[in-house]
Amino acid sequence: MEQTQQTTILIYVPEVTSRVEYTFEFIFQKILGVEVIFTSSVNEFLQSNLPKINYSPAGLFSGLFLNAHPILFENNIMPQDTTEVEYNQLRLFFPSSIDSFLPFDPFACTFYLITRYEEYLSESTDEHERFTDSENLLARHQLNHLPVVDQMAYWLAEKITGQFPGFEIQKRTFQFLTTIDIDNAWAFKNKNPIVSFGAILKAIFHRRGDELKQRLIVFLGIRKDPYDTYKYILETYKGLLHHILFFFLIGDRNQYDKNISHKNKYFRELIISLASVCEVGIHPSYDSNHKPWLFEKEKFRLENIIQKPVTQSRQHFLKLKFPKTYQNLLKSDITNDYTMGFASLPGFRAGTCTPFPFFDLSLDQSTELIIHPFQIMDATLKSYLHLSPEKAWQQIEEIMLEVKKVNGSFISLWHNESLKDTGQWLGWRKVFEQVLETGLKYSNEQS
Known about the structure:
The strands form 4 sheets. This protein has a 5-stranded parallel sheet. Strands 2-1-3-4 form a 4-stranded parallel sheet. With about 450 residues, the protein is of the alpha/beta class. Helix content is about 35%, strand content about 15%.
């Protein structure tokens, strides 16, 4: 029996592929809160009184018609023509046809962006073997500051409502999450004596008197270790700790992984303490990205410390290689990953601020791994863009407002050392606090 709820839409497609299901369900169910039904029967489509879209190469003189781009009906990975189409003063991609209800194909656009299709094909990498941010399609067209996928979903809803006035979407609310990577739990305290001695010799050789003075003050107990910002974080988010997620680097020490040993009593106590009040996840080591057995070992260490399964992760240095990184996480029972974001730019690497399932293009199927895209990282603003705290806040505020407009999820990435409020990070605590204040304000507002 045909469903008649206003929150249902019927989609006609010549073939219901895994790509079609994935894309339409993400747009309609995840973003708009609308149930989607598929049919490949022309008669069923013509006879239905539901709000409906004909997504095929030919019009059926019923419902809304969109000339479908072939990408959702393919099962391979190949270069795509991303010819620009101007709509709502934005340059979008995948032209449709003059008789389509939109001049571009928002479903093809969405699939291309959230699957990170271009990253499977690109050979352009930076010094850490990461996809080069500047090669991102949205960055090249200066659209990285907008959640274009979410915007397209709402444009679709407007067009559908114009044709079918009874069509209604579910209102969603703005969400925010502050994530903190603990790459180095302490600057001076609780280090291996050999490591500390080597660091002192290096400071002497390079005549870094300020560092030597700081070390002495910390060792004498006159002042806290500068990276020990945990009390500040917890007090700032008092009563709001569900908005905090910590990621611990727990790999063996090497060039890029310099955290305290997982065997260190004080490091283990810190992890247990934070895990008792906040959500925690793993920050897989630099080398684990291409050595999955390392990740397994590190995950086991963290689980042994907190005495519960670890299901959340973010890659150290944001090292992400499609599809291997996510395939490895799935094999290790990771269900939620927070790596999806730019290292050198603010904004939306996948064009959305809505968590989405990882679609493995190499297998042409959706998976159970949920990707949570972040939009802002402290090091991006200070180290890559060289912004002052005041200018950084302006960038963050603009991004947060764009997320609020579509009532998506704003996720920021911080490090415990960036909140020490001294030296190069002087003034950044205020920015951290402004994110919380604005996040709470937007969460409480009705739009």
